[in-house]
Amino acid sequence: SVRDVDGEVLIAGVMEHVEEAGVHSGDSACALPPQTLAADVLDTVERHTRAIAEALGVVGLLNVQYAVKDGNVFVLEANPRASRTVPFVAKATGLPLANIAARLIVGETLASLRESGQLGHVGPLGHVSVKEAVLPFDRFPGIDTLLGPEMRSTGEVMGVDMTFGLAFAKSQMAAGTRLPREGTVFLSLADRDKPAGLEVARQLSALGFGLVATKGTAELLTRSGVTVDIVVAKVGEDGEGPHALELIESGRVQLVVNTPRGRGPRADGQYIRVAALAHHVPCLTTLAAAKAAVAGIADWATHPLEVRTLQELHLDGAVR
């Protein structure tokens, strides 16, 4: 958002994280406009943002981070400065945020910029933009790719399309992870993720993917009527089926969904994630990312990806 010397506030955009709390905002994929936030939550976010900008007397940029739990909105921090989300929001909305903020700081107002035509179009967007973090894992063989509260990204990319799924798929490609369109998906889910993971598995199966899973996950899927092709033995355990590492190393798996189980048997998941990295198999470590990936794969199956310029996306055809 930006605020001028007269106290008018313009909220340029609200970005919603794909990954939930516990993953640093710099490492989380984000969507603009938000895809799951309720209208009353968005109203609260905008109302809080305006109140904070007024209370702090901000002139220029203000970045506020929120957490939402059960419909309740919590303010985490407010930064009266530019952040690396500014260029993303500018490209996503067509608003020249850095230019606007600089002019407001030296005394111009939103009203004057609006009158002179320098503010740009403010209104609903006809497309979805997804920011994805670029992570340096491929440069550090053997490192665990699990995301957490410590930011590890070294850059950002964005994907833009008419649907969230297509935009997410593009963002993954730009970050170096091409989602598969066919093949086999390996699922190993923490207990807390299994109910929601069941729906992801159903969607993957409906899209034509074969499924392999560790014992607990496989039992849930089978009981629920989802076909599991192979039950995978855990690392270091004897079982009737092959080990996860064998499947990944042999190229029989095209996507891994492995959510951590906490402090206990976490090492098993770490071996799986390290193997996926070593053999260039996309590995998703949150259920939120898995849901987004399924949306991307589903949309991609019926809508081929196309490239559109920023000029085509924004109403007045001007790159700001």
Overall description:
By secondary structure, the chain is α/β, with parallel strands linked by helices. The chain has 11 helices and 14 strands. The strands form 4 sheets. The chain has a 5-stranded parallel β-sheet with strand order 12-11-10-13-14. A 4-stranded antiparallel β-sheet has the order 3-4-8-9. Strands 2-1-5 form a 3-stranded antiparallel β-sheet. Helix 7 links the parallel strand 11 and strand 12. Helix 6 (194-206) packs parallel to helix 10 (287-302). It is elongated, with a radius of gyration of 22 Å. The two termini are 17 Å apart.
Features:
single chain; five-stranded parallel β-sheet; four-stranded antiparallel β-sheet; alpha/beta; disordered C terminus
Instruction: State the distance separating the first and last CA atoms.
Output: 17 Å
SSE order: EEEEHEEEHHHEEHEHEHEHEHEHH
Largest sheet: 5 strands, parallel
Q: Based on CA inertia axes, which overall geometry fits?
A: elongated
Share in helix: 25-40%
Q: Tally the helices: what do you get?
A: 11
Structural class: alpha/beta
Average residue pLDDT: 89
